[in-house]
C-alpha cells in the first residue's frame, strides 16, 4: 500500500489499460494521426464533463507540472510581457520553487509574499498589489501545497477572482486537480501532473488556459506566428495553443500516458462525487490521527489539505514508524523541505481505497 | 506490421515489461529512491558496455530529442557563451528545425549550411568555419536525417573529429543510436529518443555528453551552482549534470519509460552485432527495391541511411500503395516535409524482424 503523495499508488486498472495499449498498437501510433487526435479530444470532453472545465478553456499536455511553471513564467515574463508583475503567494517548497524560478529569470517583475503554514490567505494580502486598468498583474498560487499539506480553499479562490478582475490568476493544482472540486472559472491557468490525483504513472503534465488569458497573450505577443513562421521554442505558448486546437502536441509526447489518461478520465465519476468522498475521508482521518495522540503538522483546520495529510513526530519517531510500516507493506511519504525530518505525509487520493485506509488506521492505532 | 520510422513498432517483450513494471510497483516508485537510481545506473552501465559509450560521458534523460535541441542551443548560446558560433550542416527537415530554433533565439551566432540530399559531406565544407585556438565553434550534424533517409557515415564523423579538434561537435542521432555502431568519441553531445531504434513507446530522450564539453561548460558558465543556489531552469545543463551524477533527474520523469529502457538495453546484444544485421538488411532491401523497379529517393549509395529507407513514387502511387498495404495490415511511413507527397518511408529498426521484412518484400513485389 503506497501512501506517498506522488508518484503514488496507481489505479489497479492501469495494468489492464497497459495491456490494452499494447494489444491495440497505441504504443506505436503517430502523434499526428487521427487516432491520437481522437484520444486527445476524448480527454478534453471528459475533463469538461467530469471536472467542469469550461468549454472555452484550452487543454495542453506537457512533460510535467514543473515544465508548466516554466512555460507560464517565460510566456508572461519576457518580450512584450516584460513589464507584467508576477506576485507569488507561498507557504511551502513548491510554491517557493515556482517563485524562485521566475525570480531567477525575471527578477525585476517577480515578487514573493510568504505566509505561515497555519495562516489563511486573506483579502488584505492582495491589497498590497497595485491594481491598474491597463496593466494586469499575475497572481500565482499553489492551491494545494504538497510539501506541507496545506490548501487554499475554493471559497478563497472565488473571493480572489472577484476582487482581482483585471489580473490573471495562475494556480498550481498538482496534488488536488482530480481529487477536489475546483472552480476552473476562478483562474486563468491551472496545471497538474498525472501521478497524483489521476492515479497514473509519472511523466505527463496537464494545463488548462482561459480564453481571456489566451486572448491577452495573442494581442500582446510580439509574434503569434502562422504556420509559415518559425517558432522560437517547441514549448512556446503560441505553438502549444495552436497544436492543442488541433488536438495535437508540439513534439512526440508520452503517448502511452495520454492514452492512460483517456482511460482513467472516462472511468472516474464526476468530480463532485470524488471530491465529497475525499473530503469525508480526510476529515475522518484528521480526527482519527488526533484521537490517537499524534500531532498534525497543520493545526489550523481551515487550511488543512484534503488530499495530503502530515503527521508531526520527533525525527526518531518518524524513522521508527516508517520502518514498522515497511514491515507491514505500507509506504508512508517522507516529509519535504523544512519538514523533511519530522513529518510523515499520507496521500488521500481517489485511487486509494477505503480498505487501504482501514488498514492504515489499524497500523497507526 | 508497423514500418513507420518512429513512433514505430515496439519490441513484443514490451508487453511483459509493462506487466512486470506494474507487478513490481515501478509505476509508483519515487524518482529520488534508491530503486530508481539503481535502474538509472544499470542503463548507464549497459550503454557503456553495449553501445561503447565512453565511461567518462554523462548520460542525461530528457522528455524528447526535441528538448535536447533546446537544451544544447540554450546552454551554448546564451550568457557567457553568447560569442560561440554554431554551424549547422543540414539537408533535411530535422537538421533544419534544430538550426531554425537556434537561429530564432541566437541569430547572431547561428549559421546554416545546407547541402543536397545526394551530396556527401566533405572536408571542404568545414573549411569555411574559422578555426581559433581560444574560441571553439559548435558543429551541429544530423547523423541520420529521418525526413529524407540520408546519413553521414561514421568514417566522415571520424574525419570531422580529427580535423576539428578545437571545436565541439553535437550530433542528432535520433533514428540511428541503437541501430548503428557509432563512435561516441567522435562527438561531444549525442542525443536520441527511444521510439526509434530502442523499440519503445515514445516519451523519453537520451543525451550523452563528453567530459570535454562539460569541462568547458563548467569553466565558462556564469553560475555552476552548488546545492544552495537556485537554478534558473529545471532543464538547465548544470542542473541536469548535477542530478545525472547522482543517477537522478531534475524533475519527476517518465519513470515507466526509463524502466522499459533498462529492460531493453539489458536485453539487446552489443551494437556491433545489431549494426551488422541492420546494415546487411538495409543493403539487401535497397537492392530488392531497385530490382522491383521502384525509385529510391536517395540515389547516392554512399549517403543512404541504414535505418530508414525512402521509395519515391508519383503522389497517386503513394496513396495507392498505402491503401493496399493497410489492407494487408502493413503500415508504411508517410513522406516528410518537402518529400511528404511523393515518398514512402520504411523503418529498418532492430525491433523489426526478418520475417516482417520478408512479408513486406512479398507485398512490394
UniProtKB/TrEMBL annotation, chains A, B:
Q: Which Gene3D superfamilies match?
A: Aspartate Aminotransferase, domain 1, Type I PLP-dependent aspartate aminotransferase-like (Major domain)
Q: Which organism is it from?
A: Bernardetia litoralis (strain ATCC 23117 / DSM 6794 / NBRC 15988 / NCIMB 1366 / Fx l1 / Sio-4) (Flexibacter litoralis)
Q: What is this protein called?
A: Serine-pyruvate aminotransferase/archaeal aspartate aminotransferase
Enumerate the GO terms in the molecular function aspect: alanine-glyoxylate transaminase activity; L-serine-pyruvate transaminase activity
**Which controlled-vocabulary keywords does the entry list?**
Aminotransferase, Pyridoxal phosphate, Pyruvate, Transferase
Q: Which residues form the Aminotransferase class V domain?
A: 138-331
Its transmembrane ranges are none
Name the SUPFAM superfamilies on file: PLP-dependent transferases
**Pfam families named among the record's database cross-references:** Aminotran_5 (PF00266)
List the cofactors.
pyridoxal 5'-phosphate
Task: Show the InterPro entries listed in the entry.
Answer: Aminotrans_V_dom, PyrdxlP-dep_Trfase, PyrdxlP-dep_Trfase_major, PyrdxlP-dep_Trfase_small
- Which ranges of the sequence are coiled-coil? none
A GO biological process of this protein is: glycine biosynthetic process, by transamination of glyoxylate
